[in-house]
Amino acid sequence: MQKKKKKWWLMLPKCFNNTTTFSSFSVSPQVIMSRKVVRTSKFRHVFGQALKADQCYDDIRISQMTWDSNFCSVNPKFVAMIVDASGGGAFIVLPLSKTGRIDMSLPTVCGHTGPVLDIEFCPHNDNIIASGSEDCSVMIWEIPDGGLISPLKDPVVKLDGHSKRVGILSWHPTAHNVLMSAGCDNVVILWNVVHGEAVVRIDSVHTDLIYSACWNRNGSQILTSCKDKKLRVLDPRKGSVICEKDKPHEGSRPVRAVFVSDGKILTTGFSRMSERQVALWDPKNFGEPLTLQELDTSSGVLLPFFDPDTGIVYLCGKGDSSIRYFEVTDEAPYVHYLSMYSSKESQKGMGYMPKRGLEVNKCEIARFYKLHERKCEPIVMTVPRKSDLFQEDLYPDTIGPEPSVEADDWFSGKNGAPILISLKDGFVATTKNKEFKVIKSLMHSKPPASRSRTPPPQPTKIQAPSSLL
């Protein structure tokens, strides 16, 4: 007996509707829900673009040191880069407008007797820059408005207190003239630059080399990562550990850490198989990371740069030829990959422009200064927008150059929130020029290890730069 054939329309997948014609069908809700939903974000289409050759800084001999610092610092007036020097350490400081080929005879800042390892501009005075060196000293320099016209050998202040080379520098974000330094002697020192004084010395916490040290947004906490595989949040004035995390990354290579929004911590490190990772942590519950993502198998240390205004973190690897950027949010998986800027040449260092130095008319949300073997190349990160109007969602009020608390008050226990400015009409300085004062009798002497309670001698005023951005 012949089998009865099944009707062909009964064999169709269930996603087809039970309709009379084959051409009209609908997809079931289950199939729709299973499709990948693209996360909405105004930063999804951020793209990076290198500036033209005539807007780069060419023929610069970038330092060949293997230290994992940025080797570059930048602000709305100047760009500074650590360069090769014979018989000591040096760095150059150029006005932003001085692009093109740089004359090899250009004056440098050359007061150190050993190679310079780190430099950082003061956030409250664009003419002041600090440098740390292999000669175990920290020096504070004042750069004239038009740049150097002769070699600068004598610092405004010399800070002696480390017994080994100084590789990490970080100015306090809100307190005037407070500088943090960390050396290969496993010691963190907080300086009152005006008095040339080491007020706080944290020398019993870290048992090995310090990889990174940074402040939180108002400077009430310090975050450090160390070769002993521990991540620590410190009270800077007491020098005590608030909380710590053992082995944020399983690998033995360097870990970098920065504070991000809401007090969370973002770290970059390596797995046991030497894969590069990025992780987000909540210090209130250090047990497990909020998220941990593997990126690639490259060997370069990832330097994180976080923008609190947009919530974007940029990861720049030493020796890489790319910059990855992620958006940090409150929703899982918390760290959302956005895109990557790629180029042909690898980077030896990276400078990051403060928000007040960007061109808001071009929807520029970040600018990097990438160091090559022989040049510095600006890279602009832009959000594509058709409107010529000011984009308020891209530029909320940002940190300005005015400090909210003086050094003595901060060391006494007073915290100050950042003073915010609007970028709507471009940045315009509305504050009076800050005078930079130092005590000359202490300028070249070794500062005490603890804070002096005696009144300081009468300070000598040093003429401030003509304008303060």
UniProtKB/TrEMBL annotation:
WD repeat intervals: 109-151, 159-201
Protein name: Coronin
Superkingdom field: Eukaryota
Segments forming domain DUF1899: 36-100
SUPFAM superfamilies the record matches: WD40 repeat-like
Gene behind the chain: LOC107729508
One Pfam family this sequence matches: DUF1899
Similarity remark: Belongs to the WD repeat coronin family.
Annotated stretches, region: Disordered: 442-469
Keywords: Coiled coil, Repeat, WD repeat
Feature: compositional bias, Polar residues: 460-469
InterPro entries named in the record: Coronin, DUF1899, WD40/YVTN_repeat-like_dom_sf, WD40_repeat_CS, WD40_repeat_dom_sf, WD40_rpt
Listed GO biological process terms: actin filament organization; cell migration
GO molecular function list: actin filament binding
Lineage, highest ranks first: Eukaryota, Metazoa, Chordata, Craniata, Vertebrata
Organism of provenance: Sinocyclocheilus rhinocerous
